[in-house]
Each structure stands twice: as C-alpha cells, then as structure tokens.
TrEMBL record:
PROSITE patterns named in the record: FBOX
Pfam families, per the entry: F-box (PF00646), LRR_At5g56370 (PF24758)
UniProt-listed InterPro entries: F-box-like_dom_sf, F-box_AtFBL13-like, F-box_dom, FBL13/AtMIF1-like, LRR_dom_sf, LRR_FXL15/At3g58940/PEG3-like
Name of protein: FBD-associated F-box protein
Domain F-box: 12-60
Length: 364
C-alpha cells in the first residue's frame, strides 16, 4: 500500500503546471459552452475561460433539446449574454456565431457589436430564419463595416441585408466567404464593392431566377475566386461579369444557368472548372483561362471546337464520368503542347501520367 502511495505522489499534474496563456490557447479550440464548464475543475480554472480569444456559439449545438422553440432561444440568448458580460476586456480573435431561432434580433446585433469593440479578427456569422420564425430581415451593424481589425469574414444567411457607409468600409478585410439563399438583386455586389483590399472571395448558394440576372465582380486586388451558384429554376440564365487584373486562382462550378465573362485574366495561374453540362457558351470561359499553368477539368462531354489551345499548361487533371468519353482526353492532349503532368480520374480508377517527348510514362 505504501509503495502505491509513493508512486501516486510522484505523478505530476502536468496540465495544471502549464501557464495560463497556454491553457487559454487549448480552450480556444473548444466550443465556448465546454470552455465555460471547465470552471468546475478547480479554483485555478474558475476564470480561465474569460480570457479565451476564440468564442464559438451555435444555438442548435449548444441547446439541441430546445432548438425548435422559444424556450431554447431564451436559454441560448441568456448564455451568450452572460458569457460576453463576464468575459474580461481582452481582444477577441475569432468569433463564430450561428443562430437559427431567435425572438429578438437586437441581441444578435449587440453580440456582433461587442465582437467589433473587442477588435475581432475573424468573424463567422450564420443567421438563417427557420419555419418557426416570423421572417424578418437583419441589417448588419454599421460598426462591422468600419472594423479596422477584421481580416476574415464568413457570412451565411437567408435574411441579411447590407447598408454600408459611403466610405471607410472593411479597411483590413482580405478574405470574404458568402453563402447566399435567395439574395436581393444587388446585395452580393453591394457587399463585394465594400472590400477595397480583398484577396480571397468565395461565393456559394442559390439565386432566385426572377430576382438576380447579372452579377458584377470587380476587385482590383483579388487573387483567388471560388464560385458555386445555382438557380431555383432550370434553364434560367444569369450572367457573371468578373474583372480581376491580379486574379491567380479560380474555382468555378458551372451549371446550365451560369454564363461567365472574365476580363483582364492574363495573370491566371491555376483553374478548377466543374461542368455539369457543357453548353456552347462555355467556349468564352475556356478561352479566358487558356494561359493557365495548372488546370483541373471535370466534364461529362466536350466537343473539340469548344477547346482553345493551352500553350502554358504543364499540369492537367481530367475527371471523366464514363469510359466512353475517353476521346475527350485525346482532344485535350492535342490542345496542350507543353503538358508535363497528367492525372486522369474515371469512376473508380485514378491514373497519374508523366508526359515525356517520346510519349507517356505511366507508373504501374
């Protein structure tokens, strides 16, 4: 018995031996609900959570048993209010807020304003009205547009509206990720136009065919652009006009309804194009990206006259849905005189080939 006690006495509490700053860093990877619960561990842990730089709130996950009614909404609101009230005055690095049900949108506005006052750097905000709500629009607070520390903004909503100030918007914002659900006519353009130094833009979601017909994206500093949009009705046309003189990387998932127009695309280096169908108007998009060095192309069928010559292409990845479309690969090889690396995917097989002057080396 005494030997066991001696061994236990030699066991060190390595967790409590860590400095407070490191413990706060560890807690910053947890949902805030669980970070707060660490107060029960010991006296030392009682106030550690108040200095955690990252805050994560999600009403569906924090109170899943009550997510579908006002009781759960009230619990979640009180929880977020108390966390922000008792938290110390240190800056907030990441603020992630996901709200599906709320009786009072003024609370949401207040939470966002608190994050801005605490010099938030990354904001991930999701607000989607559920069928339990009476649908109301939510306008982003003015202080968010003028936040000088915000560099990453992620927005996902079916009810957000934008009324930005006339000047001084998003002076530090470089990364913008937007998921839209039936937006107003110019809401996407209005938001993008507020970002003078934007470098990375990701747009995803669904458009209403009777509301949105044209989307203009013109950002002089943009380097990476990813677009995955669809419409709520098949065979409705909408146009995407893109002007990015510094654009280097694009990722487009193309459907029957989208028509891309790229201007000043000579700086493009890498492109990922997914074509669900291949209408003849895709020719303009392929022509605009013909100078890229790296191309990933996924398509069911292509005709040779759709394809321009890719004089600078050194690496090509092709996704073929059926073996009967292997002739498309032959067409592509005719259009890529300087190709060095080829990756082919077909249903359950993947081949990687290296192009050499006398043919193709294919590893076993």
């Amino acid at each position: 018995m005494s030997l066991v006690l001696k061994r236990r006495a030699k066991v060190k509490d390595r967790i409590n031996a860590l400095p407070d700053a490191l413990l706060c860093h560890i807690l910053s990877f947890l949902p805030t609900k669980y970070a707060v619960r660490t107060t029960i561990l010991s006296r030392r842990w009682k106030n550690l959570w108040t200095s955690v730089p990252n805050l994560y709130f999600n009403d569906r996950k924090d109170f899943p048993s009550f997510q579908a009614g006002p009781y759960g909404s009230n619990l979640f609101t009180r929880f977020v209010d108390r966390v922000l009230y008792f938290r110390d005055s240190s800056d907030i690095k990441k603020f992630r807020l996901s709200v599906t049900y709320t009786d009072d949108l003024s609370h949401v506005d207040g939470w966002l304003c608190t994050a801005v006052r605490r010099n938030v750097v990354e904001l991930d905000f999701e607000l989607c009205q559920s069928h339990y709500n009476q649908y109301r629009e939510f306008e982003l607070p003015q202080s968010l547009f003028t936040c000088t520390t915000l560099t990453v903004l992620k927005l996902s909503s079916n009810c957000i509206t934008y009324a930005p100030p006339t000047a001084g918007c998003f002076p530090s914002l470089k990364f913008l990720y937007v998921t839209v659900h039936y937006p107003d006519t110019d809401s996407i353009e209005k938001l993008i136009s507020c970002c003078p130094i934007l470098e990375n833009l990701n747009i995803d979601g669904i458009l209403r065919c009777d509301v949105v017909s044209d989307i203009h994206i013109s950002v002089p500093t943009l380097k990476t652009l990813s677009i995955n949009l669809s419409v709520d009705r098949q065979y409705h046309d909408y146009n995407l006009f893109i002007n990015g003189p510094k654009l280097e990387n694009i990722d487009f998932k193309h459907d029957l309804s989208s028509n891309y127009s790229l201007e000043h695309s000579k700086s493009l280096v890498k492109a990922n194009i997914v074509l669900k169908e291949v209408p003849c108007r895709i020719v303009a998009l392929l022509e605009a990206i013909s100078n890229v060095k790296y191309l990933s192309l996924s398509a069911e069928r292509l005709k040779e006259w759709y394809l321009p010559v890719f004089p600078n292409l050194s690496q090509l990845k092709v996704v073929l849905y059926y073996s009967c479309y292997w002739e498309m690969l032959v067409m592509l090889l005719r259009k890529t005189p300087n190709l060095e690396d080829l990756i082919v995917e077909d249903v359950s097989k993947i081949w990687r080939m290296h192009i050499v002057p006398h043919g193709i080396n294919m590893p076993s």
